[in-house]
Amino acid sequence: MADPKGFLSTPRRLPPRRPVAERVRDWNEVQVPGGLLPIVGAQAGRCMDCGIPFCHAGCPLGNLIPEWNELVSRDDWRRASERLHATNNFPEFTGRLCPAPCESGCVLAINQPAVTIEDVERAIVDRAWESGYVIPKPPERLSGKTVAVIGSGPAGLAAAQQLTRAGHTVAVYERADRVGGLLRYGIPEFKMEKRHLDRRLAQMRAEGTKFRTGVGVGTDVDAAELRARYDALVIAVGATAWRELSVPGRELAGIHQAMEYLPLANRVQEGDFARPPITAEGRHVVIVGGGDTGADCLGTVLRQGAASVTQLDIHVRPGTERPEDQPWPVHPKIYRMSAAHEEAQELGASPDADVDARLFSAATIRFEGAHPGPGGATAGVRALRLVGIDADGRPESGSERVLRADMVLLALGFSGPERDGGLIDQLGLELDARGNIARDEGFATGCEGVFVAGDAGRGQSLIVWAIAEGRSAAAAVDRYLAGSTTLPAPVTPADRPMVV
Ligand SMILES: Cc1cc2nc3c(=O)[nH]c(=O)nc-3n(C[C@H](O)[C@H](O)[C@H](O)COP(=O)(O)OP(=O)(O)OC[C@H]3O[C@@H](n4cnc5c(N)ncnc54)[C@H](O)[C@@H]3O)c2cc1C
Ligand code: SF4
User: Which residues belong to the signal peptide in this entry (predicted)?
Assistant: First the structure.
């Protein structure tokens, strides 16, 4: 513990964000560049180096948080980077994108603001890249065994890096034209600039991992044939089957799924289009769904120059304090203000919501549209009719409202992996009761030598869980191929986030 009184003398401080008016005119990350480093040493010094560090309990990776807090507060960045990378392949992703359940579990959070663990993580890894501490780590010798990883999201990438470093020859198959999964085409640039992903992929290529993009396994390549060509397969195809909103008017033009919309916006940043084929520019937009995907749509809609935007959440508005039935150290459901909500509030983006563009306890009844166009062309959406609901989901009388909407984005979550792509049938895989790909306690499916990692097996989750699953599945594959393993396995398929 570098500063025994740090938690008493130093208040929690977050790095500054760029002014809203400036940041909604570009796509760069919202933080002020260089704003974190001057404050992060003192923030890390707030850590009490607890005898039982509950921050560990919140993190599926088992991150060595008190160790790197102390190293940062002592200005020992090289060793901090070593300890950080000992448990996490991609801390630059989690340091930007994780909801930080470790901070909810921090012992300081019992009666004070938690240590800014996620900021410390980001500072360490950014500094490590700048200082040249992050270098390729190719294996010393090859095992002669081959592995195909299907899907290049955080689970597939973590599994591939672990297995490559263990000496196996690994090829990652990705149906999209670029590597990265939801990190590439789901998560917007203003939350994580893609240069961070590309830099990590360059490291992986230098270590020997091969990438085959534009190959859908099950459609372009038969999955059973692929199994026969490799000694093992890791399926990390995500849980990308989106939920629908089956209400009257759903067929109207201008209503899109979030994952039809966000990838196009991300492709503009990749240089594929000057203007996205679906854009919110000049539109009155309603986002249906109050989660993080909805917030990503919100930030994107604002940057595209929408005329107005409202986000609907079917849930009751949560309070700002931790509720009594969600005691420390669980990650509580509270009212959180993302950068996109901050932007919506400051810009007064919604004429229909009180603050920050959100309407809670709102259920969509139907979409209303213009008459069909000439020649039977699909009519466009003009409005969304909603009803207010009580805590039990019952409609409240007299609460119907009509919101102007000439574009609607559906962000209702995902029901599991896509079932119709051929992959599941060709390998004869089974689904579990929740519709995810079934696996045993060792990440293995019923098909010999085929393993499952990430959202495909767990269901819609978080990047930190995907990385933890990728690491653990890699350990299982290594044991299968080599008879034993020294690779770490931080989670089992049955592990779940801490809840009440
Ligand atoms: C819009 C959005 C924003 C999010 N923001 C956050 C966030 O801020 N923080 C956070 O922690 N989590 C966030 N999440 C959740 C997080 O992105 C996922 O939990 C995580 O990416 C899952 O990783 P994965 O590797 O299992 O799958 P994915 O990232 O979904 O990757 C699966 C990959 O497999 C490929 N694939 C699928 N089928 C095939 C096939 N047959 N052949 C070849 N390739 C195939 C897909 O193209 C995809 O690239 C967000 C999710 C969404 C949708
Ligand atoms: S729980 Fe908080 S104070 Fe304790 S070791 Fe972890 S980060 Fe430090």
Answer: none
Encoded tokens for 383: 């409005």
Q: In the chain, what are the domain boundaries?
A: 6-130, 146-240+416-482, 255-410
What's the mean pLDDT in 142-165?
98
| Best residue among 3, 102, 115 to mutate for probing ligand 2, ranked by most atoms within 8 Å of CB | 115
Q: Is 98 in the pocket of ligand 1 (CB under 6 A)?
A: yes
Task: Report d(CA 447, CA 239) in Å as an integer.
Answer: 20
The pLDDT tens digits of the residues spanning 37-89 come to 999 999 999 999 999 999 998 899 999 999 999 999 999 999 999 999 999 99
Which range scores top for mean pLDDT: 3-12, 321-330, 408-417? 408-417
- Say what the pLDDT of residue 376 is: 65
Closest-lying ligand 2 atom to the alpha carbon of residue 48: 3
Backbone angles phi, psi at 319, to 5 degrees: -80, 170
Nearest CA to ligand 2 atom 2: 106
Q: Find the ligand nearest to 117 CA.
A: 2
pLDDT for 243-283, tens place per residue? Answer: 999 999 999 999 999 999 999 999 999 999 999 999 999 99
- Is 6-130 in CATH node 1.10.1060.10? yes
**What dotted CATH number matches 255-410?**
3.50.50.60
User: CB of 171 within 8 A of CB of 149?
Assistant: yes
Q: What is the CATH number of domain 146-240+416-482?
A: 3.50.50.60
User: Best substitution site from 107, 110, 112 to test ligand 2's pocket, by max atoms within 8 Å of Cβ?
Assistant: 107
